[in-house]
Design goal:
single chain; DNA binding; alpha/beta; D-Maltodextrin-Binding Protein, domain 2; 303 residues; 10-stranded mixed β-sheet; Arc Repressor Mutant, subunit A; DNA-binding transcriptional LysR family regulator
Length: 303
């Protein structure tokens, strides 16, 4: 008869490493185990649950339906064990543990980077693991416990029910070549420069999602073409190269801007977006993560 304690945590660890790194070879490197050992762990887990968890091919490994169902429980189980160990260790007076945070380029550079530095100074035994991705990836990562906290724009539709808190409202800015005329007039009318021009925006092309398309439509703007890239640095680089004008979040623009490009604010009524922090409340946040969340919310209030 199956017993829950028949499942080894090292099997779960290897299973999650394959999922997160995409192959048995990469998982072996990440976990400092041999590839045959990782394969043996996953095979043992498959025998124990009585189902094939992964489809293997020469290039990449993908989850079966059984693997998809097991994934969030495996993450939660290991997270609970680590949280318990960290909680006991913290009895000595030092907060310990690992906080896994998902985000995207703008908040990572402007909001999280200084916060992580200060948090590490205060709690040197807490590890902050920062991972970046698209809004859909961030949502899925929070849902499956791949990250404990996910910073994400709220204007992209959600597929799962996650708990969240407002962090900030970010302006969307216009990036133009320095030689593009005088645009220092009213913010309300600056968006007109977009009409009939080539525009570069951020988004997730593989997911069919583009930042700011709804805002362009609301303003009656019809660009001649739209190029979607994944990183704000690329937006700035393409604008500088004369490939068009750009739209991007102000935080991403701040950490990406360089000579040859001007950044201009647009009307606040349409050209803003809300950024929230999301987490899956089906499992209680551990102490280190709750401390980090409190620090993040305080940081956002002070901005």
């Amino acid at each position: 008869m199956y017993e829950g304690d028949d499942v080894s945590t090292v099997w779960l660890s290897s299973f999650l490493a394959v999922v997160d790194h995409g192959s048995f070879t990469a998982a072996a490197t990440a976990t400092h185990r041999s590839q045959p050992r990782v394969s043996a762990h996953v095979a043992a887990l498959e025998r124990r649950v009585g189902a094939r968890l992964m489809e293997r091919d020469a290039r990449r490994t993908s989850l079966t339906e059984a693997g998809t169902r097991l994934l969030p429980h495996a993450r939660a189980a290991l997270a609970e064990i680590r949280a318990g160990v960290a909680s006991v260790s913290s009895l000595a007076g030092d907060l310990q543990g690992t906080v896994t945070v998902g985000s995207f380029a703008g908040p990572s550079g402007v909001l999280l980077a200084p916060l992580i530095r200060r948090f590490r100074e205060t709690y040197p035994h807490v590890v902050i693991d920062l991972r970046e991705g698209t809004p859909h990836w961030l949502e899925e990562a929070a849902t499956t416990f791949a990250v404990e906290l996910a910073l994400r724009t709220a204007d992209v539709p959600m597929q799962h029910r996650l708990r969240s808190e407002h962090l900030m409202t970010e302006r969307i800015v216009l990036a133009v070549p320095e030689e593009l005329g005088d645009l220092d007039g009213e913010e309300q009318t600056r968006h007109r420069v977009l009409d009939g021009r080539s525009i570069v925006v951020t988004g997730a092309p593989a997911e069919g999602w583009t930042d700011f398309a709804d805002r362009l439509s609301a303003c009656g703007v019809t660009p001649s073409s739209v190029t979607t890239v994944t990183h704000p640095t690329t937006v700035i680089a393409l604008v500088r190269a004369g490939m068009g004008v750009g739209l991007l979040g102000e935080m991403g623009a701040t950490v990406s801007a360089f000579d040859g490009v001007r950044l201009l604010r647009l009307s606040a009524d349409v050209w803003t977006r809300e950024i929230r922090v999301y987490w899956n409340d089906r499992r209680r946040l551990d102490t280190a993560t709750r401390f980090f969340l409190d620090a993040l919310l305080e940081e956002s209030e002070n901005r």
